[in-house]
């Protein structure tokens, strides 16, 4: 478990800023304490400093995970967000899309969303902007990238969203995982 290098931090923050913009500072300096990002086995974990100090007693080879996995670095040093980051990114998202209940299940199974399946869209969503997809009941579902939009319209093309992230939504609490 080590802190991220400057290059890793830059790449990760650029990816996260695509979804939450200037609200990135709110992710680190929270009212309930200070949180930080740590790298372990090419995965980036979001963890409070209190838990980080407690986990210092565990050796690195025995440590499985720490905090919430935000994403991972690929072998080409690109950062990929995981679905577990959704609960932390959704409250600060700048651009949101709501999907109607009829299209929600089809979307979660990996299919595209037609224009008729879109409920609402945040104004001024630009091309290839990171969005958070919500159900009509305001439950965050996924964090894909918005595709090309039509001229003069804020509606998306017929093949609107292709799910980018894993669909398994594991709830990770702020626990320390240790191999036995």
UniProtKB/TrEMBL annotation:
| Domain called PUA: residue spans | 95-171
Q: What does this protein do?
A: Required for proper 34S pre-rRNA processing and 60S ribosome subunit assembly.
SUPFAM superfamilies listed in its UniProt record: Pre-PUA domain (SSF88802), PUA domain-like (SSF88697)
Q: What is this protein called?
A: 60S ribosome subunit biogenesis protein NIP7 homolog
InterPro entries tied to this protein: NIP7_N (IPR040598), Nip7_N_euk (IPR055359), PUA (IPR002478), PUA-like_sf (IPR015947), PUA_sf (IPR036974), UPF0113_PUA (IPR005155)
The encoding gene: NIP7
Parts of the chain that traverse the membrane: none
Cite the GO molecular-function annotations of the record. Answer: RNA binding
